[in-house]
Write a structure and sequence with these properties.
291 residues; Rossmann fold; two-stranded parallel ribbon; 9 helices; 13 strands
């Protein structure tokens, strides 16, 4: 049994990590920025990750064996970059195993695909902040694990799925880009992989995403079809037409990391073919891969 701290535990990925660690019988603490999730078995702690002294005091008090930093704010450098450094300093001080969740936004999309040893070349402030966080974490704690992932979906409540539902129902205006390609991952698969990797001796960078490279529009159509909505109601657009720079086609090469895992990372075409009422993921932290 380990003591685990999930920084950003009230977020979409964080909540799934919390649930799985509790189910596995560990002692779980989690932080929140505004309000805790409804998980009574968890030691919820309010935390502003941007405040270095607060981060240090909390981690020194909880003294976890494992710290996973899943906190982020799309437009806040202090949360994404400075906050990650604060967590790393506090974690290494007590000898905790650190897992930093990063993003495919650290890449420009200029390459055909990106392996774990690819150098970040971000195009926008969010990607730059996540790249800075990676650099800080590696410098502060060479034994830490940095996990880059892609679009995270689940069974209807992720940000992308919620947006698709709203657009298809006519409740919100918007378009789904045909030129914005990612490798989506199911939140259950990602959480299972993070638990498994946290218990390994693996350090450095790992890529954890699905094997399907798919546009946001095709992804939206799959979500709509799964949830009984009309895919033809989803208008198309081009990410390249926006004035704000950003990566277009970013494909994470996850073959090396998948070879380390028992957890099987499913592609979006597979996990979106299932009913949203079906089990969230066939993977558990100790489930062998299918042959």
């Amino acid at each position: 049994m380990s003591r685990v701290l999930v920084v950003g535990g009230s977020g979409y990925l964080g909540a799934e990590l919390v649930r799985r660690w509790v189910d596995a019988g560990h002692v779980v603490f989690a932080t929140y920025a505004s309000r805790p999730a409804s998980s009574p078995a968890v030691g919820w702690q309010a935390l502003d990750i941007r405040r270095r002294d607060d981060v240090s005091a909390l981690i020194s008090h909880v003294r976890p064996d494992v710290v996973v930093n899943a906190a982020y704010a799309k437009t806040d450098w202090r949360t994404n970059a400075d906050g990650a450094a604060h967590v790393a300093v506090a974690s290494v001080r007590i000898g905790a195993r650190l897992v930093q969740v990063s993003s495919d936004a650290v890449f420009s999309g200029a390459a055909d695909s990106y392996a774990e040893d690819a150098m970040p070349d971000p195009l926008n402030p969010y990607g730059a902040a996540k790249a800075a966080a990676e650099t800080a974490v590696a410098a502060i704690d060479p034994g830490a694990l940095v996990v880059r992932t892609s679009l995270i979906l689940g069974d209807g409540t992720s940000g992308h799925e919620t947006f698709v539902h709203a657009v298809a129902a006519g409740a919100q205006e918007g378009v789904l880009f045909t030129d914005d390609v990612r490798c989506p991952v199911h939140v259950g698969d990602l959480a299972a992989a993070l638990l498994e990797l946290s218990e390994s001796g693996h350090a450095g960078v790992a890529h954890v995403a699905g094997p399907d490279a798919i546009s946001r529009h095709e992804l939206g159509r799959l979500v709509a079809a799964r949830d009984g909505l009309d895919p033809s109601r989803l208008p198309t657009g081009l990410r390249a037409d926006l004035p704000v720079p950003g990566p277009l086609d970013v494909r994470l090469d996850c073959r090396r990391t998948q070879g380390l895992l028992r957890t099987r990372l499913r592609g979006a075409r597979e996990f979106l073919a299932a009913s949203p009422a079906s089990p969230e993921s066939p993977n558990t932290p100790n489930t062998p891969k299918a042959d």
